Every structure is written in C-alpha cells, then in structure tokens.
C-alpha cells in the first residue's frame, strides 16, 4: 500500500471568469521554490489564451510538456473522458511532478472534480492538497455576479417556475462553498470600505473552517498555498453544489452560458479594436473577452483582457517567426449570446 505522504499533492484553483486564476498560476510558477509542477489548464475555445500567457513563465518549474490543456469544455463535465485519463497519464510517467496544479475554467463547478480524486486509481496516488477559490473583489462589489435582487424579482414574476437564483449567483456560491482557501483578489481596484463589505459577504457564505486571504494580482505566499494539506476529496461534507442539492448529482448543463472564438486576419489598429470591443461589451451580455491581436506593422502581439466592462491591452511578447499573425479572441457570456451581432461589431475593427 502506498503511504499517504507519498501521494502527489494537487491544488485545484477555481473562481469565476476573470477573477485572476491565471495570474495566480503565473505567480505560483515563478515562486515555486524548486518544486516541479505539472499544470492542467481548462479553458474555452481553440485559442489557448491561458496556456500561451503561461508558456515560458517558469521553465524550470513547469516545462512545456508539463503544461496540459483541457479545452474540451468545462472540466467538471469531462471528468471521465478527459480529466481522469490525463491524471493517469501523469501517474504513468517515470518523472512524476512534485505537485500538480489544476486551473479550472471560470464556469466550472469544482465539486465533480474534487470527487474524481476518490476514483480508486487516482485516490491511491494523489490527494487534493486544497481547493483555492479566487474571488474578484471589484466584480463582487460592483454587484456584477451577485444575484441582482430586483432583476431576479422581475424574472420570478414573469416565470413562476423559476425556483433558483441567477446562474451567476449560483455558480459563485458553488465555487465559494467548495473552497478550502478563498483568495479575495483585485483588492487594488476597490476602496477599503467596499473591500470590507465584500469580505463580510463572503464570510457569511463560505463553509466553516475555510481560510481567506486578500491579494492583488494573486500575490500570496506560494509555500503556504501549495501546502494546505487538506485532503479535500476525503472532506466533502458541506461542499455540495446547488445542482447536487437540487438534482441529486445528475449531470448538469452549462446552457446558461455560451462562448465562441473569432479570428480577424488584419485590423485597422489598436484604438479601433479597443473601441469595437468596448462597444460589443457595452451592448451585449459579454462577461469575458480575451485573446491576442496583430497590429499593423508591430513586431509584438497585443494581449487583450476584458473582465466585465474593464478592458486592458498590452504588448506581451514579440511574434515568433513561425506564428500566424492574426487577431484571435474568445468571447464568453450568458446565453443566448448574439454571436452574429457581436462578430459584426468586432469586425468593425477589421482592416
Ligand atoms: N487590477 C487588477 N487586475 C488583475 C488582478 N488579478 C488579475 N487581474 C487582471 O484581470 C484579468 C483577468 O485575469 P486572469 O488571471 O486571466 O483571470 P482568470 O480567472 O484566469 O480568467 P479566466 O480563466 O478567463 O476565467 C487580467 O487582465 C489580469 O491582469 C488584480 O488583483 N488587480
């Protein structure tokens, strides 16, 4: 029998779209203190934005072959087909990692993933060191995914069958309740008073015994983060998601949300693109938009990140010689997303 202390520890990082999971992973890879880390990245679409952002940011810690992308939908729905085989493949390696970090998509429910660690082949050799939930303090204080009571009351009046909270509110609570540690991130974007209010609200909703730290740009103590030592798969009490509570663990759907990616071979310029993105976000139900842009004549690619109404863009690295220079964006929002109208809007920036 394999002793508990020889199991590979796995840190699960979850949290809503744009909360700062990839930013935390970057920090973690840069400060892993000599640990070799395998990284499982779960995100939307065929563009691989997170992997591209993380590539090369901690080569000693996480080599290219140790970065595994699961882009086939939310990880919680593909546990048997994608996640378990990936973990088994990691276990089959002769050079096993010291630690595994799983970054879920922003729409994933962590519960099915945590339970997967009770599959016999996995449980014998891996343990969940801890579930870390990132929370975007700015989004929460702006009420962006908290249940909007007025809107909800209106919806309820129109639909008597509506017995649950908003999809965003539910997902937020499911991710909170699954946590061993909550990182209240983006503290730089809110006032001390707003932060205190947001923290109080989280403390009301989180499970007893959950830790909470505040952070800006995911700057937390990596040693503590990678050594929570919880064994979360054996401590499932109280982590039940809304879906599990309401449907007894039947498979869930993500049809409240939609995502698509689009490619523009050439664009007019930075301002035109940012204006088109701003307009698309202002007029459609877009929660998250991210990707890279090729500006005419620029040797570097422009990274673009939008979380709610906040859009940022910066040159992150030069284009590589063998890379297609194009603008590629992933758009994620509440269903139904008017893909045609959003595409048309973004194409206003096309040259
Ligand atoms: N001002 C500020 N920006 C932050 C902070 N943390 C992350 N960001 C920015 O927020 C945006 C989204 O961050 P990510 O780390 O990509 O978020 P994520 O949770 O991985 O996003 P998804 O995987 O798409 O769900 C990026 O532009 C980050 O630079 C923070 O603490 N403060």
**What gap, in angstroms, lies between the N and C termini?**
63 Å
Number of separate structural domains: 2
SSE string: EHEHEHEHHEHHHEHEHHEHEEEEH
CATH class of the largest domain: Alpha Beta
Number of strands: 12
Contiguous uncertain segments of 5+ residues? 160-164
CATH architecture of the largest domain: 3-Layer(aba) Sandwich
Key attributes of the depicted protein:
single chain, 351 residues, alpha/beta, Rossmann fold, 2 domains, 5-stranded antiparallel beta sheet, 13 helices, 24% strand, binds guanosine-5'-triphosphate, Zinc-reg_GTPase_activator, CobW, hydrolase activity, CobW-like_C
What does this structure look like?
A hairpin with a 2-residue loop joins strand 10 (300-307) and strand 11. The protein has two domains: 8-247, P-loop containing nucleotide triphosphate hydrolases (Rossmann fold); 257-349, 2-Layer Sandwich (Hypothetical Protein Yjia, Chain: A,domain 2). It has helices at residues 21-30, 49-54, 79-92, 110-116, 120-123, 137-141, 149-158, 167-177, 192-205, 222-225, 242-247, 270-283, 339-346; strands at residues 8-15, 37-42, 67-70, 99-103, 126-136, 181-185, 211-214, 257-264, 286-294, 300-307, 310-318, 327-334. The protein starts with 7 loop residues before the first strand and ends in a 5-residue tail after the last helix. The model is unreliable at 160-164 (pLDDT under 50). It is α/β, with parallel strands linked by helices and 351 residues long. The protein has a seven-stranded parallel sheet with strand order 3-2-4-1-5-6-7, with helices on both faces. It is built from 13 helices and twelve strands. The site of guanosine-5'-triphosphate has 24 residues, from helix 1, strand 9 and strand 10. This is Cobalamin biosynthesis protein CobW. Residues 236-256 have a biased composition (Basic and acidic residues). Residues 257-350 form the CobW C-terminal domain. It catalyses: GTP + H2O = GDP + phosphate + H(+). Zinc chaperone that directly transfers zinc cofactor to target proteins, thereby activating them. Zinc is transferred from the CXCC motif in the GTPase domain to the zinc binding site in target proteins in a process requiring GTP hydrolysis.
